[in-house]
UniProtKB/TrEMBL annotation, chain A:
Keywords: Amino-acid biosynthesis, Cysteine biosynthesis, Pyridoxal phosphate, Transferase. Residues 9-292 form the Tryptophan synthase beta chain-like PALP domain. This is O-phosphoserine sulfhydrylase. It holds the Pfam family PALP. Its EC number is 2.5.1.113. It catalyses: [CysO sulfur-carrier protein]-C-terminal-Gly-aminoethanethioate + O-phospho-L-serine + H(+) = [CysO sulfur-carrier protein]-Gly-NH-CH2-C(O)-S-L-Cys + phosphate. Homodimer. It comes from Micromonospora deserti. GO terms for biological process: cysteine biosynthetic process from serine. Pathway: Amino-acid biosynthesis.
Automatic annotation (TrEMBL), chain B:
InterPro entries: Beta-grasp_dom_sf, MoaD_arc-typ, Mopterin_synth/thiamin_S_b, Sulfur_Carrier/Prot_Modifier, ThiS/MoaD-like. PANTHER family: SULFUR CARRIER PROTEIN CYSO, SULFUR CARRIER PROTEIN SLR0821-RELATED. Transmembrane segments: none annotated. This is MoaD/ThiS family protein. NCBIfam families: moaD_arch. It comes from Micromonospora deserti.
Amino acid sequence: MARYDSLLDACGGTPLVGLPRLSPAVPDGAPPVRLWAKLEDRNPTGSIKDRAALFMVRAAEEAGRLRPGDTILEPTSGNTGISLAMVAKLRGYRLVCVMPENVSTERVQLLRMYGAEIIFSPAAGGSNQAVATAKQIAAEHPDWVMLYQYGNEANARAHYETTGPELLHDLPTITHFVAGLGTTGTLMGTGRYLREKVEGIQVVAAEPRYGELVYGLRNIDEGYVPELYDATVLSRRFSVGTRDAVLRTRQLVEVEGIFAGFSTGAILHAALAVAHEAVRDGRRADVAFVVADGGWKYLSTGAYGGTLADAEDALDGQLWA
Amino acid sequence: MAIEVRIPTILRSYTGGAKVVEGTGDTLGDLLADLDSRHAGLRGRLVTEAGALHRFVNVYVNDEDVRFLGALDAKLSDGDSVTILPAVAGGAFGFAAAAAIAQHGAATAIASHAGRRAAGVAR
Ligand SMILES: Cc1ncc(COP(=O)(O)O)c(C=O)c1O
């Protein structure tokens, strides 16, 4: 057990647990293929985003951009907002979040509980609209500080300095790292660190594939790639549909007792794909993947019960991860 | 058997509204050329003049991003499934929770009010 001076000091240092039941069986005499889950739901507010939030706020403080009493503005519909709200509360800042209207009520309740103020952007414009809205609001309030997680190097650095070293320490034989692709901070930071230290490491991205509404741009040129993204850090990138993500999320709790959010199901789907390829090729593999958050915030979707088809319908057109 | 290609909403003007079309080719480049012969203009939206995939277009073969499989040189086989999607921040924002279906009506009402407010702020 460990003791910390404050909640902020208890960020990171999450457990890495083996998944003996979900790891694929290998033929007699073949090298082992093992899956390992990094339990990021064991962070102060329950998601991997605590790491990024803490690093981004610290970096802004060190650069003199943030002073006590300042207002932080961030486009975020979820975990980053909750993490920033907690950090802002403990360090003495006000937080305003801009988020698309089609997020779960749990998220809104959690953000308000932690003391954040919320400005909704229309679902129709999707996430791009929320980023655009936040940028406009920032221009109108030059004294507000936008940390802008999509382009903030401290987001990726949090994982370069903490997630990566923790993984290598706990699993020196790691062969694959699998995580979700959102702002890309987790994969860029952890991926760069592991590439420097582990020869031949495979860095694998899983991104959610949503219903059509989410891709409803008017023009290809309205597309968006986070500034942090550098494709050379990745080895492979999978797009995982709702059905596969839901199936894997349920399998994880049924078989290994880990209750996670749907992005983790998408990540597990990609992790299983690379694990099965290793079995087929008769190669040893230690596949570490990220459990980005717990399932609590998604219970109201109803997608943990009923048939898979019902769950898929329930999440269609929604942002589920 | 041919290769099934899923077309995103914004490009369906090139496929007469079809969500899914079929084509043939040994590589992604060949497939796009084949598609363009029946759906003129489609290829031009996906490939730049310099001959690379457009920055804001993602193409997946059996759910895997072709940029890591050789891009336009990615090998294809009969029965493969190709998905074309615009790059959106959905990947990122998407890591937001789904609106509860039960509460969707109420949430939409509140949100469209808030949306107007946000639009007002943005103006
Ligand atoms: C639940 C969940 N999974 C995955 C991600 C993706 O992580 P990142 O933003 O570091 O790419 C996020 C954050 O965006 C998240 O909240």
